[in-house]
Amino acid sequence: xxxxxxxxxxxxxxxxxxxxxxxxxxxxxxxxxxxxxxxxxxxxxxxxxxxxxxxxxxxxxxxxxxxxxxxxxxxxxxxxxxxxxxxxxxxxxxxxxxxxxxxxxxxxxxxxxxxxxxxxxxxxxxxxxxxxxxxxxxxxxxxxxxxxxxxxxxxxxxxxxxxxxxxxxxxxxxxxxxxxxxxxxxxxxxxxxxxxxxxxxxxxxxxxxxxxxxxxxxxxxxxxxxxxxxxxxxxxxxxxxxxxxxxxxxxxxxxxxxxxxxxxxxxxxxxxxxxxxxxxxxxxxxxxxxxxxxxxxxxxx
Length: 301
Fold this sequence. Notes:
7% of the residues are buried. The protein has two domains: 1-39, no CATH class; 94-288, no CATH class. The termini are far apart. Helix content is 49%, strand content 2%. By secondary structure, the chain is mainly α. The longest helix has 36 residues, at 253-288. It is flat.
């Protein structure tokens, strides 16, 4: 219950709780003659906005890990490990392949210089994974699994990891034979197969023979690619309609860009455009036999 003390100049409210701690609705005085009812929401009532990770999340992850362990155990019992003879320094195997977890890097050496394939691209992968919690501002999907509300984020990870990285491991394992030549499934791995070296640099294909002019041409092409990529990404995000089911921002694309900020947008755009550049470089090599776009005496891309 509540009591008032004073003669109009000061009002003191005292609320007394009933036995058992039941929530009351105290009366709050806003003046000498007016009173307003302020409801107090009882703890634990209604729909909870936050849930404990155990058992709601960890239980599902634990059960999935058990299923994966069982599948891997049965698979390992049914297949023999592809062990070869002890290492012989006088006989180098052809092809010489790295362990499966490094085959992606070895496959990227076909398309890029060693400094770029072995240092720059892995650094982008590691730094990009570290920056995901700071770049992702979409609160949907926190604490529960969803594809419909996080389609863009999940597809970006799927393309970057499964298509760009796991596919390189699959290609290096099953499609690269002697001489690191391409062999289709069922084709005999002929160690005497010789492929014609028809790869050419893009500046040379365009008739440029001078190193300085070729370097400037390559820089312009790469710079133009990033400019076009940023413009396309910006207008694509800005065109998202209001109430887009992919994000939690009702204002659509303009609100996403405002909440994201120029720094997050710039970093995310750079990582996405660089990732797409790997696909483009692979397509140029396979379709047009283009080896490098930027050619200098020191570095090549």
